């Protein structure tokens, strides 16, 4: 396991390498970011937005939370969304899920996660709304049905970019995307 001293040394080495490759790297980066993309993704440490998109620092504006949930009551996410669209002028909003998400798995398994249960309740609400009983009563869809349903996309974008933020905020971006694939190789022929 790395110590903080190791992490600081790694950061200094990374910064030195950037300057060796491009003397103006940090000067240019400090001026102003101008990303074309807003990434709304999971907090999972295995999903580094810049790296998996092949983008450099400053090329993607990132917001992360457990299970990449976008809801109308999350002022943090709404502020990021509005800032990205109105100030940074991003062109694309991506709500990106990943395989093996612990938050989604906790809901699927009905496993308590403590305080995060309050946050994950948004996913549970979508799971319930994906399946209705014969008399219109709410029942919970089986997790295996989530990925086979168009509602799986709703799980990832429920009350999402097209209905969040100040009126018209997301509409100002040229494209709002809920990335959802049925297999890890569906996206660009690679694995997720």
TrEMBL record:
Its cofactor is Zn(2+). GO terms for molecular function: carbonate dehydratase activity; zinc ion binding. Residues 146-156 have a biased composition (Polar residues). Gene3D superfamilies: Carbonic anhydrase. InterPro entries: Carbonic_anhydrase, Carbonic_anhydrase_CS, Carbonic_anhydrase_sf. One of its GO terms (biological process) is carbon utilization. It holds the Pfam family Pro_CA. Zn(2+) binds at residues 42, 44, 98, 101. Coiled coil: none annotated. It catalyses: hydrogencarbonate + H(+) = CO2 + H2O. It comes from the Bacteria. Belongs to the beta-class carbonic anhydrase family. PANTHER family: CARBONIC ANHYDRASE. This is Carbonic anhydrase.
């Amino acid at each position: 396991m790395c110590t903080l001293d190791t992490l600081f040394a790694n950061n200094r080495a990374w910064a030195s390498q950037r300057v060796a490759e491009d003397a103006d790297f940090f000067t240019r980066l400090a001026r102003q970011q101008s990303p074309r993309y807003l990434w709304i993704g999971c907090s999972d440490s295995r999903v580094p937005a810049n790296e998996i998109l092949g983008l450099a620092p400053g090329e993607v504006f990132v917001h992360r939370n457990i299970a990449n949930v976008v809801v109308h009551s999350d002022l943090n996410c709404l502020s990021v969304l509005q800032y990205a669209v109105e100030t940074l002028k991003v062109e694309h909003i991506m709500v990106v899920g990943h395989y093996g998400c612990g938050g989604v798995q906790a809901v699927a398994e009905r496993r308590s996660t403590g305080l995060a249960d309050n946050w994950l309740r948004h996913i549970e609400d979508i799971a319930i709304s994906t399946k209705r009983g014969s008399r219109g009563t709410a029942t919970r869809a089986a997790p295996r049905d989530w990925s086979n349903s168009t509602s799986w996309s709703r799980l990832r974008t429920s009350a999402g970019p097209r209905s969040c933020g100040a009126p018209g905020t997301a509409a100002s971006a040229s494209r709002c995307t809920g990335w959802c694939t049925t297999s890890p190789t569906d996206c660009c022929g690679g694995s997720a």
